[in-house]
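Notes on consecutive records. When two proteins share a document, each keeps its own sequence and its own token line. Never mix them. Below: protein one.
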Amino acid sequence: MAEQQGTDGSGAELDLLVWDAPNIDMTLSTILGSRPSPASRPRFDAIARWFLSGAGDREVEGCVFTNVQPSSAVTMRGWIEALRNFGYAVFARPKLQADDDVDADMLQHIATRQETHRLRRLVVASGDGRNFHQPLEALARAGVHCTVLSFSEVAGYAQESELIEFVDLEDVPGAFQMPLGRTRLTSLPPGGGWFRPTRPMRALLEEAPVAPTGITTHASVTAHVDLSEAGTEVGVTVTPATSVTPVTPVAAVPQPGLNGRPAAPRPLPARAEP
């Protein structure tokens, strides 16, 4: 039987959950300061139960969108099969280029479900406001209940929106086997709380030193700094490695002297022979 079209209101009512696996995994790593362990990864069965609790008798669909590195295809197979066993459909895109993301695929699937069903509730598990902010607010204005499921540290666009509901992933019952050890600005204890560093301070010693103030470190940028009282202008060319290559000094343009007469240019200081 062909699917009914939902654009005219004749399709079945649907609650849709789309999960941005690369974004959630990257955000979780940032929050924890390290790669998540099995105990600190979200439990998709608990996420599914939470999602179902708000669906009533409507149809439901949960979809996980992920990238697959060629080197990790074998190890990800078990995870994908577990998701399917929990009732999720999985869309996998090979990660061959840096821009091989799944955001456009997620938006396309949402648009498809708008055509085939009457979309009543949409849950987007992603902190990516650049791609989802405006589409979600447009759907909310059209009558779709839109929820962003992510972490408060990154999903500011949803927390500030008057049209989008925000749910912190750690607030979903049973989503994690143990607390993540976060300190959230939105729920600070009365006595205050600590924000742990995301990496050791000594890691700074492994980085290139910061250039002095006033020197631009971007590639192919030329800066001009006034280094003398006489107004002599010295050009410096900054390379990607922040080295500075002096350029031959150029005498400044003579400035007006007393009585409006041009003052004689001051001679450049003699350069010491090597």
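Protein two starts on the next line and is unrelated to protein one.
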Amino acid sequence: MNTVIVCAVVVVLCATAQSRPSKLEKEGLSGTNEEVFIMDNSLLKRGWCKTKPVKQIIRIEGCEPAEIVNNFCYGQCNSLYIPHYNRQTPAFESCATCIPVRVHRRSVYLNCPNAKQKRKRHRYTYVKR
């Protein structure tokens, strides 16, 4: 059995609502009971997300580790929680997250001197943006 371990400094998850404002950021937040206006959109900051390089080590049992450079995403997003007046569950909650916008598969070849197959190919997800 081949065990694949990818060690990373940061978990790779990125990109908020990219560079465009969300509906919430554009219009603000309204309630459903008689359309009570709850929050002005000027109180919301625009979410953003960027990528930075990160070195990752790919390890396969019986092979020498290989170092790759990938990208991780980071940013700031709006999140909201509005309590329900008579329940523990919220009336509304929102928590945005950074996710990749562009990814593709890449390959790395690991040297495996003591294995039958001297070089093994490992495919991984590369975060472009």
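For the record: The first strand starts at residue 4 and ends at 8.
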